[in-house]
What we know:
Blueprint: H1 3-30, H2 32-41, H3 49-65, H4 69-87, H5 94-116, H6 123-126
Amino acid sequence: MNTSLHSLAKLAARVLLMLLFLVSGLGKLSDPAATQGYMAAMGLPGILLWPTIVFEIGTALCILLGFQTRAVAAVLAAFSLVTAFIFHHQLADQVQQIMFLKNLAIAGGFLLLACSGPGRYSVDAKRGKP
Length: 130
């Protein structure tokens, strides 16, 4: 793959990976009480809702822009694994099993991004840290 195509692929990967977190963070704003109730049902304090919203939107924007990409991608890989085990651990339920595996796949994508970096079209590359 040539360098330009490789850089475009990394940009596309960043956009696709960040969409889930941006939409999820913004979606939580539409009905915070329901999200807090879901978090409480899973054993998490509802007070974590607002930090989670900020985290999801903030990290999504970092990935989109390619800012601190390697570190943010590593954190999102860990976050994806933790949320898989907290929210999707009922593997006898096929939907939950698929959601669990989806989180594992997302973590894998973020690990690749953490290792390979953001590519040419990123703030990190402009700063000399691709």
